[in-house]
Every structure is written in structure tokens, then in C-alpha cells.
């Protein structure tokens, strides 16, 4: 019996698949089409285990659907623009383009070593002009249709690095690289009108029934539709302030009004009052993200202005400037109800403002509620005049009705979703195809002049945007009036690149972004697979971009991703040396059952099992593993151990077990002979496995499919020679082919089949063999299990009793005595009471 030589088989079959273009998707195929896509990788350097897991899942589905007779599009490309390339340029003095393209070459070769069924002829990299040039054209189409605009907005500015920072790059108010105190600066930036689609994007979620509920909920919260009311408070200085609330029912519980630091009233006050100006400056030092605002200490400045309560003008509320009120949500002003809002509660506690309960759930006393926190639950209105006794929903309606009829307020809807700011003051991104002219304003670059290509000769030795300080690149003539003008030097957020790559995969003509008819044949993506970290932004932007193209008549697809699957992470144990250094798995050895440092022999503590990461040094590089065990064993392991939506722990034992299984499967096949005779039981096991594995792959429950194949192989190893057994072994190879394609091809060829197993048909199932007509009966004596036996399903009670009494284990215990009683549960058990 031979061994499966994975290294030899892997490269031979990979070469053949490539030569024969086996996985090229045919746009004109008459077969039903399927589009399987995993989120394309960022070319960071090398493939990691998370990639292996992600791409193997999509691959199994692809290969399975091909065997089921579908034409499958399964492409691959590179999300190739972004910050890490510029960081590498600064640190290692390499060009971002060279660094990126080298990484792509390395990672492409690594992916090919996994034997993925990918149509490599459609490969694309977003950093190449033949991709981003088309993106520029699409940007201009959106611009021409009013879906792109420019406005002044606030950014985080690092005064030392002279660069704009993303929120994640601001740590405790300082630039992550320079450590300088970050300033807020106003810049003109480009925006995409995603808010125009807020309703559609929200409603569309309902149709996405093949998405995880949690992702839909996250999108819903991000879009954040709030129904409420907007109204004016008259102010003691003669002016007024408009507030937005989702809780008009709590109006009689208000004890202050608060405005944002950027609110015009605050700004006006700052001009005459230095204390107010100081407070506003202090507010600007704090973070701007919702999470930061939530956790910051709530601070306020009493303006001295008083607001009149709308239902009782004699009732005056102090007006504060407060750091927890955002200018760009609602109206930038609120009324505070400390009893029923936690931020207001903290604020009121700090500034000694009244805490007045107006909603009661009828159980607790006021002091119980309000010592620690506000009460935000449902209940009945109290202390609220004409609202008393109503529930919250009725009270909301009543306040809105009165405000509208008295003319001082109205019911409204507000959205949390903001327009998408796409300007980045960076080099390594898609240049925004606009020219700024003093006379004509912002002028689109004529389409025939696209792509606007990034200049190659840039330097990264001084801070700032290399495009901006390039000696010639930005100096161009205005396309409209011909006078000297300036190119836009901002580039597009890389999320724009990933918002339409799946369309370009489906169709990639040279002269336009895509051919509509061809793209519509493939789209939507039937199964999209990727990390849950993209559950909000990437998926929302891609949904928006697709809808925007639909609105301007470029494609008739509303939702780009029909099915979505978010896979879990790959984890590994962590190790620490006695001095607290993290150790990599390779730096640790086991000796006499304890772990010690390979170098130096010091004791090692085993830490938690965590997501593989460079910082904890608990990564395992896939490449040497593939070299050692072969692609099929690696594929088998990443599919096998846990449900795909959960984390998978990478262990040495696990990969060895997978390797042993691959060898077992090969041995079974290698021992195959022309046996004769029928084994009905085995036929049934086989057909149940075929049907079960198919259902599991379709449901993306790969670990279950793997478990069924294990069970089949166990049964085949035990089975006696028969024609049934020979047939089942051959069929086992077929249904394992999506998971272990190299072994499967090798076996398929050895069976003398012409053609590839990759092109073979999935075996048909005989429905008659799916019914289990044999059951396992437990034989008990005094309730204790003594043996199990097989019996025909539905066998009658008397037969089962006779069989049980004749059982050798039972006879030994009874020693000839007559049992007191025999209880028979048909199809389940026989219990003998002695
Ligand atoms: C009075 C009130 C009473 C409120 C109460 C809540 C509870 P969502 O649901 O997230 O939309 N708010 C309004 N504009 C704000 C702004 N620019 N910055 C900070 N907070 C703002 O939240 C709406 C609620 O958040 C509004 O309802 C308002 O406080 C506050 F028992 O008004 B509420
Ligand atoms: Zn001009």
C-alpha cells in the first residue's frame, strides 16, 4: 500500500488546472450561474491562517456547485491601496507600489499552493490604473448625477506630521506616530450622498434573508433611524433654540437645555465671553467618536440664558453648552431629562440640577431609581399634567399633536447615518479626478483623459501628502477654460475601491468599468464570505454604491450580496517566557510533559487561546505547514474542527489528525479491488452520506460535512469486501473532492477516468436508500445497559423480547432465573427487570 505523496500531487494538479483553465468562468455558458466570492485580501505581505480558512470555505462551495452542474464565478483580486504601503515606504524606504506588487506576487503564489478553484484570468488589483481609472469614471458619473459634493468639514490634524488622521489613529488625543496633540481643522472634502439612500438601505435589509441577523441589526443601528419631534424653546435673550428629541413624552421631566460647542449660540457667546470660549476650546480636545463621547466625563458651561418651557412659559430652564451634545446630529441642541436619560443623569448629578421622574413602572420608589442611574424603560406617565396615566407611546403622540396644532414643533425623523467623506490626504489611493480652477471652480477631468495616474516619483522622507508637494503633478490647465489650474490632490478612501470590485470581476472590458448585460448575468453575488469586522462599513458602502449605480441607470441590481456568511477567527494558544516576553509556538518545546523555551530552556506559561496576531506572537505561517502536510490536509483541518462561524483553534494535533485522515482515505482507495456481492447496509450509509454532505456544504456547515466523511471512512474500513464497498470507496473520493481536491484528482486518474474530477458530476442519491430501516436497540437489565443490537425498524414487541432474552450478556446475568418483568419500547430499548 502506497502513501499519498501530497507535494507531488499538489503541484502536478495545480499545474494541470492552470493549463486547462479549468476554473475559468464562461460568461456565455448555458448552465445556471453561481457567483461565489470571498472578501478580497489586502496584500500585507504573506497569507495568514484566516485567509486560508476564508478561501478554503469559498473554494469548497465553488467546487461543489461546479459538480452540481453550475457555471461558477470564483475570482480573486487585491485590495491594494491603503496606509500600510505608505508606512512601509516611510519605514523601509521602498516605493508603496513596489512593496504592494511584491506582496501580491508572494501571496498569489501562496494562494495557488492551496489549490483554489479560482478564475485567475479575472484577477485585479485596485492600485492599477486599469482598475482605478474606471473607478474615477464612476466617481464622475455620480458627480454628474448630484451624488457627490464638496463641503468643509472637521478633520483630526497632526501638526507635526502635517497630516490628517483617521479617528483610529488618534490615541488619547495625540497622533499615533508623532505623539503631538491633535488639532481639529476644517478642510474642504469630498462626500458621497449615502444619506439619500438611508431609507432604501434600511428597507433593503429586510430582503436579505440569507444574511446573519446580527449583521443586519448592526447595519440597522448604524443607519439609525429615530422617530421624534423637533421644537423651539423661546430664550430669555429674545432668541430661540431648536431641539430634537425622541422622547417628547418626557417633556415635563426636563430640567435643562444643552447645546453643542459648535452651536451658533455657543459660538456667538464665545465671541464676547472668554470663559465660554475657554470651555469650547476644552471640548474640542475630547474625542469625536460616539464611543468617546459616551465615556467622557459630562461637562457643561452655564450660558446664563434661560429657556421657557413650551407648556408653561413661567417655567425656566438653564441653557448649558455641553460636551456630550453633537453638532451634526439632530439640531445640535437637546433638552435634558435626568430621570430618564443616563447622560442627562450624570450631567444633572454633577451640576445639581433637579431629577424629576415622569415615567413610572409602578414598582420602585423615586429614591431607589435615581441614586445610581436613570430609568429608561417603559411605563406610565406621572407628574405630567395632561399626560398623566398615558403610556409612553400615547404620550409621545399627544405631545406631538399639541405642538403641531399650537405651531411650535413637529414630528420628524432623524438618521444617524452621515454622508460618506471620501477625501484622504494620502498618496497611495485613487486620485480624485477633479481640477480646481479659480474661474470655473471644481471641474471634472474629461473622461477621455482618464485615468488620472499617480506619479511614480514621490518621496516619503518628509511628512505630509506627497501628491501635494510633487513639483509638477498638480499643475495642469483647466479642462474648461484652459487657464492654469490645480489638480485635486486628495485620493479616495479605499472603501470606494472595495465598493464595486465584485462588479468588475463579473465583467471587465477595457473601455468602461463594466458591461452591464454581462455583469447582470452574474450578479448579485450568491454567496459572499468574509470577516465580521466588515459587517458595517464595507458592506454598507458596497450596498450604497450598487444602489447609486442603479439609480443613475448603470445597472439593474439593488443588493450586491444575496447571501452573506461571516466566518470566525483562527486562534492559537499564547506563550510567555518567565520575563514576560511573548514566545511564538516555534520557540516553545515540550519536555517531560512541561513546556519550556526552546532556546535557554526556561519555563513557559501557557496563556489564553487568542486570535492569531503578531503582537502576541501566536501566529502560524501557513506556507511551511502546506509544504509539510500538503494542501489537502491543511484544507481539511481548517474545515473540520469547529462550525465555520465560530473561532477555530489551530493545533499541531489537529493538523496531524487531518494529515492522517488524508492518508487513510488514500489507503482505502489504494486497496480497492474488483470485489463482488452486495452490502445493503453499506449502500444505505453511502447514500445518506452523499445527501448529508451535499446539504452540509450548501448550508456552509463544513465541519458537519467533514464529520460525515469521517464516519463513512470508518464504516468503509470495517466493511467486508463487496461490490458495494468498492463502489462506496470510489464515491467517497467524489464527495470528498471539494475538500481534498488533489488527492481526489490523483485517485480519479488512477481509476482510469478521463477528464478531471473537478469537472465530474456530483453522485446521484437513491431516495429509497435514505430511509433508515434498521434501528439500534438498547438491551438493559434493571435499567443498566448491557448490550446493543440491530433490529428492523418497527419490529414487533414480542420479537424484540425474545431476542433480548436470548442475548448472551443477559443470560449470564439472569443465570437461568425467570425475569420479573420485561419492558419493551419499540425501536428503542428492552429493559429486563430481574
Ligand atoms: C429628551 C430625552 C429624554 C431624550 C429622555 C432621551 C431620553 P437617538 O435615539 O439616538 O436618536 N440628542 C438629540 N440630539 C442630540 C445631539 N446632537 N447630541 C447628543 N444627544 C442628542 O437619541 C435621541 C436622543 O438623544 C434625543 O432624545 C436627545 O435626548 C438626544 F428621557 O431628548 B432626548
Ligand atoms: Zn477654468
From TrEMBL:
<dbReference type="InterPro" id="IPR015413">
    <property type="entry name" value="Methionyl/Leucyl_tRNA_Synth"/>
</dbReference>
<dbReference type="Pfam" id="PF00133">
    <property type="entry name" value="tRNA-synt_1"/>
</dbReference>
<dbReference type="Pfam" id="PF08264">
    <property type="entry name" value="Anticodon_1"/>
</dbReference>
<feature type="short sequence motif" description="'HIGH' region">
    <location>
        <begin position="41"/>
        <end position="51"/>
    </location>
</feature>
<dbReference type="InterPro" id="IPR001412">
    <property type="entry name" value="aa-tRNA-synth_I_CS"/>
</dbReference>
<comment type="similarity">
    <text>Belongs to the class-I aminoacyl-tRNA synthetase family.</text>
</comment>
<dbReference type="Pfam" id="PF09334">
    <property type="entry name" value="tRNA-synt_1g"/>
</dbReference>
<feature type="domain" description="Aminoacyl-tRNA synthetase class Ia">
    <location>
        <begin position="610"/>
        <end position="650"/>
    </location>
</feature>
<dbReference type="InterPro" id="IPR002300">
    <property type="entry name" value="aa-tRNA-synth_Ia"/>
</dbReference>
<dbReference type="InterPro" id="IPR009008">
    <property type="entry name" value="Val/Leu/Ile-tRNA-synth_edit"/>
</dbReference>
<dbReference type="Pfam" id="PF13603">
    <property type="entry name" value="tRNA-synt_1_2"/>
</dbReference>
<keyword id="KW-0436">Ligase</keyword>
<dbReference type="InterPro" id="IPR025709">
    <property type="entry name" value="Leu_tRNA-synth_edit"/>
</dbReference>
<dbReference type="GO" id="GO:0004823">
    <property type="term" value="F:leucine-tRNA ligase activity"/>
</dbReference>
<dbReference type="InterPro" id="IPR014729">
    <property type="entry name" value="Rossmann-like_a/b/a_fold"/>
</dbReference>
<dbReference type="GO" id="GO:0005829">
    <property type="term" value="C:cytosol"/>
</dbReference>
<feature type="domain" description="Methionyl/Valyl/Leucyl/Isoleucyl-tRNA synthetase anticodon-binding">
    <location>
        <begin position="679"/>
        <end position="796"/>
    </location>
</feature>
<feature type="domain" description="Aminoacyl-tRNA synthetase class Ia">
    <location>
        <begin position="417"/>
        <end position="574"/>
    </location>
</feature>
<protein>
    <recommendedName>
        <fullName>Leucine--tRNA ligase</fullName>
        <ecNumber>6.1.1.4</ecNumber>
    </recommendedName>
</protein>
<dbReference type="InterPro" id="IPR013155">
    <property type="entry name" value="M/V/L/I-tRNA-synth_anticd-bd"/>
</dbReference>
<feature type="domain" description="Methionyl/Leucyl tRNA synthetase">
    <location>
        <begin position="39"/>
        <end position="170"/>
    </location>
</feature>
<keyword id="KW-0067">ATP-binding</keyword>
<dbReference type="GO" id="GO:0002161">
    <property type="term" value="F:aminoacyl-tRNA deacylase activity"/>
</dbReference>
<keyword id="KW-0030">Aminoacyl-tRNA synthetase</keyword>
<dbReference type="InterPro" id="IPR009080">
    <property type="entry name" value="tRNAsynth_Ia_anticodon-bd"/>
</dbReference>
<feature type="short sequence motif" description="'KMSKS' region">
    <location>
        <begin position="611"/>
        <end position="615"/>
    </location>
</feature>
<keyword id="KW-0963">Cytoplasm</keyword>
<keyword id="KW-0547">Nucleotide-binding</keyword>
<keyword id="KW-0648">Protein biosynthesis</keyword>
<dbReference type="GO" id="GO:0005524">
    <property type="term" value="F:ATP binding"/>
</dbReference>
<feature type="binding site">
    <location>
        <position position="614"/>
    </location>
    <ligand>
        <name>ATP</name>
    </ligand>
</feature>
<dbReference type="InterPro" id="IPR002302">
    <property type="entry name" value="Leu-tRNA-ligase"/>
</dbReference>
<dbReference type="GO" id="GO:0006429">
    <property type="term" value="P:leucyl-tRNA aminoacylation"/>
</dbReference>
<feature type="domain" description="Leucyl-tRNA synthetase editing">
    <location>
        <begin position="220"/>
        <end position="403"/>
    </location>
</feature>
